[in-house]
Design a protein that fits this description.
235 residues, five-stranded parallel sheet, 9 helices, 14% strand
Length: 235
Protein backbone atom coordinates (compact mmCIF):
# COMPACT_ATOMS: atom_id res chain seq x y z
CA UNK A 1 0.00 0.00 0.00
CA UNK A 2 1.00 3.59 -0.49
CA UNK A 3 2.13 5.68 2.46
CA UNK A 4 0.19 8.96 2.24
CA UNK A 5 1.41 12.48 2.84
CA UNK A 6 -0.42 14.81 5.18
CA UNK A 7 -1.41 17.54 2.72
CA UNK A 8 -2.55 18.06 -0.85
CA UNK A 9 -0.84 19.85 -3.68
CA UNK A 10 -2.53 23.18 -4.46
CA UNK A 11 -5.11 23.08 -7.20
CA UNK A 12 -3.90 24.44 -10.51
CA UNK A 13 -6.56 25.18 -13.11
CA UNK A 14 -6.48 23.34 -16.43
CA UNK A 15 -5.49 25.46 -19.39
CA UNK A 16 -5.33 25.31 -23.19
CA UNK A 17 -7.84 25.72 -25.96
CA UNK A 18 -9.08 22.12 -25.77
CA UNK A 19 -10.42 22.51 -22.21
CA UNK A 20 -11.02 26.24 -21.77
CA UNK A 21 -14.79 25.67 -21.88
CA UNK A 22 -14.59 23.94 -18.52
CA UNK A 23 -15.33 26.59 -15.93
CA UNK A 24 -12.94 27.04 -13.03
CA UNK A 25 -15.66 26.33 -10.50
CA UNK A 26 -16.45 23.02 -12.19
CA UNK A 27 -12.76 22.05 -12.32
CA UNK A 28 -12.35 22.73 -8.61
CA UNK A 29 -15.50 20.80 -7.74
CA UNK A 30 -14.57 17.74 -9.79
CA UNK A 31 -10.99 17.90 -8.51
CA UNK A 32 -12.13 17.89 -4.90
CA UNK A 33 -14.52 15.00 -5.51
CA UNK A 34 -11.80 12.73 -6.88
CA UNK A 35 -8.72 13.81 -4.94
CA UNK A 36 -7.29 11.83 -2.07
CA UNK A 37 -4.01 12.39 -0.30
CA UNK A 38 -0.78 12.25 -2.25
CA UNK A 39 0.94 8.86 -2.43
CA UNK A 40 4.68 9.09 -1.97
CA UNK A 41 6.35 5.70 -1.51
CA UNK A 42 5.60 2.02 -1.37
CA UNK A 43 6.56 -0.24 1.51
CA UNK A 44 10.27 -0.50 2.03
CA UNK A 45 10.89 3.12 1.12
CA UNK A 46 11.36 2.48 -2.60
CA UNK A 47 9.08 4.06 -5.16
CA UNK A 48 7.15 1.90 -7.65
CA UNK A 49 8.28 0.98 -11.15
CA UNK A 50 6.10 3.05 -13.52
CA UNK A 51 5.86 2.49 -17.26
CA UNK A 52 3.81 4.90 -19.38
CA UNK A 53 2.36 3.48 -22.62
CA UNK A 54 1.67 5.99 -25.38
CA UNK A 55 0.20 5.68 -28.87
CA UNK A 56 -2.75 6.83 -30.90
CA UNK A 57 -6.18 5.15 -30.91
CA UNK A 58 -5.82 1.81 -32.65
CA UNK A 59 -2.04 1.61 -32.21
CA UNK A 60 -2.37 -1.69 -30.34
CA UNK A 61 -1.52 -0.44 -26.85
CA UNK A 62 -4.20 -2.48 -25.12
CA UNK A 63 -3.22 -5.75 -26.76
CA UNK A 64 0.45 -5.23 -25.94
CA UNK A 65 -0.34 -4.18 -22.38
CA UNK A 66 -2.14 -7.50 -21.84
CA UNK A 67 0.97 -9.36 -22.97
CA UNK A 68 3.22 -7.23 -20.75
CA UNK A 69 1.00 -7.97 -17.74
CA UNK A 70 1.04 -11.70 -18.51
CA UNK A 71 4.81 -11.85 -18.97
CA UNK A 72 6.07 -9.32 -16.44
CA UNK A 73 3.37 -9.05 -13.78
CA UNK A 74 2.81 -5.29 -13.98
CA UNK A 75 -0.51 -3.90 -12.78
CA UNK A 76 -2.29 -2.42 -15.81
CA UNK A 77 -4.06 0.91 -15.37
CA UNK A 78 -5.82 2.18 -18.48
CA UNK A 79 -6.62 5.89 -18.35
CA UNK A 80 -9.36 5.42 -20.93
CA UNK A 81 -10.92 2.50 -19.04
CA UNK A 82 -10.92 4.45 -15.77
CA UNK A 83 -12.74 7.30 -17.52
CA UNK A 84 -15.24 4.93 -19.15
CA UNK A 85 -15.92 3.34 -15.77
CA UNK A 86 -16.70 6.77 -14.34
CA UNK A 87 -19.03 7.38 -17.29
CA UNK A 88 -20.81 4.08 -16.61
CA UNK A 89 -21.42 5.17 -13.02
CA UNK A 90 -23.90 7.76 -14.36
CA UNK A 91 -22.45 10.39 -12.05
CA UNK A 92 -22.55 14.11 -12.82
CA UNK A 93 -18.87 14.00 -13.65
CA UNK A 94 -19.28 10.91 -15.80
CA UNK A 95 -21.73 12.80 -18.01
CA UNK A 96 -19.29 15.67 -18.43
CA UNK A 97 -16.48 13.24 -19.23
CA UNK A 98 -18.68 11.55 -21.83
CA UNK A 99 -19.49 14.82 -23.59
CA UNK A 100 -15.82 15.79 -23.63
CA UNK A 101 -14.79 12.47 -25.18
CA UNK A 102 -17.54 12.69 -27.82
CA UNK A 103 -16.04 16.00 -28.95
CA UNK A 104 -12.62 14.35 -29.27
CA UNK A 105 -11.22 16.51 -26.48
CA UNK A 106 -9.13 15.65 -23.45
CA UNK A 107 -10.67 15.40 -19.99
CA UNK A 108 -9.10 17.82 -17.43
CA UNK A 109 -5.79 16.36 -16.24
CA UNK A 110 -6.64 16.57 -12.54
CA UNK A 111 -9.61 14.25 -13.08
CA UNK A 112 -7.62 11.57 -14.92
CA UNK A 113 -4.64 11.74 -12.55
CA UNK A 114 -6.91 11.45 -9.53
CA UNK A 115 -8.57 8.33 -10.97
CA UNK A 116 -5.12 6.81 -11.58
CA UNK A 117 -4.02 7.87 -8.10
CA UNK A 118 -6.93 6.13 -6.41
CA UNK A 119 -6.20 2.90 -8.26
CA UNK A 120 -2.52 2.98 -7.32
CA UNK A 121 -3.31 3.73 -3.69
CA UNK A 122 -5.62 0.72 -3.47
CA UNK A 123 -3.02 -1.67 -4.91
CA UNK A 124 -0.23 -3.63 -3.23
CA UNK A 125 1.65 -3.73 -6.51
CA UNK A 126 5.05 -2.11 -6.97
CA UNK A 127 4.99 -2.25 -10.79
CA UNK A 128 2.48 -0.22 -12.80
CA UNK A 129 1.71 -0.04 -16.49
CA UNK A 130 -0.18 3.21 -17.16
CA UNK A 131 -1.83 3.05 -20.56
CA UNK A 132 -2.87 6.06 -22.65
CA UNK A 133 -1.49 8.73 -20.34
CA UNK A 134 -0.11 11.40 -20.46
CA UNK A 135 -1.50 12.69 -23.74
CA UNK A 136 -0.22 16.25 -23.35
CA UNK A 137 2.46 18.23 -21.58
CA UNK A 138 -0.21 19.51 -19.21
CA UNK A 139 -1.14 15.88 -18.41
CA UNK A 140 2.50 15.08 -17.76
CA UNK A 141 3.05 18.05 -15.47
CA UNK A 142 -0.16 17.29 -13.55
CA UNK A 143 0.90 13.68 -12.97
CA UNK A 144 4.32 14.64 -11.66
CA UNK A 145 2.88 17.40 -9.48
CA UNK A 146 0.06 15.34 -7.96
CA UNK A 147 1.82 11.99 -7.71
CA UNK A 148 5.30 13.28 -6.94
CA UNK A 149 6.80 10.71 -9.33
CA UNK A 150 8.06 10.25 -12.89
CA UNK A 151 7.85 7.14 -15.06
CA UNK A 152 10.86 4.86 -15.21
CA UNK A 153 10.31 4.22 -18.92
CA UNK A 154 7.87 5.28 -21.66
CA UNK A 155 6.79 2.96 -24.48
CA UNK A 156 5.55 4.73 -27.62
CA UNK A 157 3.67 2.56 -30.12
CA UNK A 158 4.27 4.29 -33.45
CA UNK A 159 1.61 3.44 -36.05
CA UNK A 160 0.53 5.09 -39.36
CA UNK A 161 -2.71 7.07 -39.15
CA UNK A 162 -4.68 5.09 -41.75
CA UNK A 163 -3.73 1.83 -40.05
CA UNK A 164 -5.03 3.18 -36.74
CA UNK A 165 -8.28 4.37 -38.32
CA UNK A 166 -8.90 0.97 -39.93
CA UNK A 167 -8.16 -0.87 -36.68
CA UNK A 168 -10.51 1.29 -34.62
CA UNK A 169 -13.38 1.02 -37.10
CA UNK A 170 -12.96 -2.75 -37.37
CA UNK A 171 -12.65 -3.59 -33.67
CA UNK A 172 -16.43 -3.27 -33.11
CA UNK A 173 -16.28 -2.83 -29.35
CA UNK A 174 -19.38 -0.66 -29.18
CA UNK A 175 -17.54 2.34 -27.76
CA UNK A 176 -19.13 5.76 -28.22
CA UNK A 177 -15.92 7.18 -29.70
CA UNK A 178 -15.39 4.41 -32.29
CA UNK A 179 -16.81 6.23 -35.32
CA UNK A 180 -14.97 7.82 -38.24
CA UNK A 181 -15.55 11.47 -37.30
CA UNK A 182 -14.57 11.06 -33.67
CA UNK A 183 -11.56 8.89 -34.56
CA UNK A 184 -10.27 11.58 -36.93
CA UNK A 185 -10.72 14.22 -34.23
CA UNK A 186 -8.94 12.04 -31.68
CA UNK A 187 -6.02 11.53 -34.05
CA UNK A 188 -5.74 15.28 -34.68
CA UNK A 189 -5.66 15.93 -30.94
CA UNK A 190 -3.17 13.12 -30.41
CA UNK A 191 -0.75 14.42 -33.05
CA UNK A 192 -0.99 18.00 -31.84
CA UNK A 193 -0.45 17.27 -28.16
CA UNK A 194 1.55 14.04 -27.95
CA UNK A 195 4.73 15.10 -29.78
CA UNK A 196 5.91 17.45 -26.99
CA UNK A 197 5.44 14.62 -24.46
CA UNK A 198 7.37 12.19 -26.65
CA UNK A 199 10.15 14.71 -27.15
CA UNK A 200 10.30 15.44 -23.42
CA UNK A 201 10.79 11.81 -22.48
CA UNK A 202 13.25 11.30 -25.34
CA UNK A 203 15.38 14.09 -23.88
CA UNK A 204 15.10 12.41 -20.48
CA UNK A 205 16.39 9.17 -21.97
CA UNK A 206 13.20 7.31 -21.03
CA UNK A 207 11.50 6.86 -24.42
CA UNK A 208 11.41 3.55 -26.30
CA UNK A 209 9.70 3.68 -29.72
CA UNK A 210 7.98 0.49 -30.86
CA UNK A 211 7.09 -0.08 -34.53
CA UNK A 212 3.40 -0.94 -34.12
CA UNK A 213 2.94 -2.50 -37.56
CA UNK A 214 3.12 -6.29 -37.80
CA UNK A 215 1.68 -9.24 -35.97
CA UNK A 216 0.97 -9.04 -32.26
CA UNK A 217 3.91 -11.34 -31.53
CA UNK A 218 6.30 -9.43 -33.82
CA UNK A 219 5.46 -6.19 -32.06
CA UNK A 220 5.78 -7.80 -28.64
CA UNK A 221 9.29 -9.02 -29.45
CA UNK A 222 10.33 -5.35 -29.58
CA UNK A 223 8.71 -4.81 -26.18
CA UNK A 224 10.41 -7.90 -24.80
CA UNK A 225 13.79 -6.51 -25.90
CA UNK A 226 13.14 -3.32 -23.92
CA UNK A 227 12.29 -5.19 -20.73
CA UNK A 228 15.22 -7.54 -21.23
CA UNK A 229 17.56 -4.55 -21.44
CA UNK A 230 16.05 -3.27 -18.18
CA UNK A 231 16.56 -6.72 -16.62
CA UNK A 232 12.95 -6.70 -15.41
CA UNK A 233 12.26 -10.31 -14.49
CA UNK A 234 9.33 -12.22 -15.88
CA UNK A 235 6.73 -13.51 -13.47
Amino acid sequence: MWRRAASLSPFISSSGSLIRNHQTAYNLKIWESFTTEIPTQVKGGKGPFICFVLGGPGSGKGTQCAKIVKNYGLTHLSAGELLRREIASNSEYGTTILNTIKEGKIVPSEVTVSLIQKEMESSDSKKFLIDGFPRSEENRAAFERIMGAEPDIVLFFDCPEEEMVNRVLNRNEGRVDDNIDTVRKRLQVFKALNLPVINYYARRGKLYTINAVGTVDEIFEQVRAVFAALKLATE
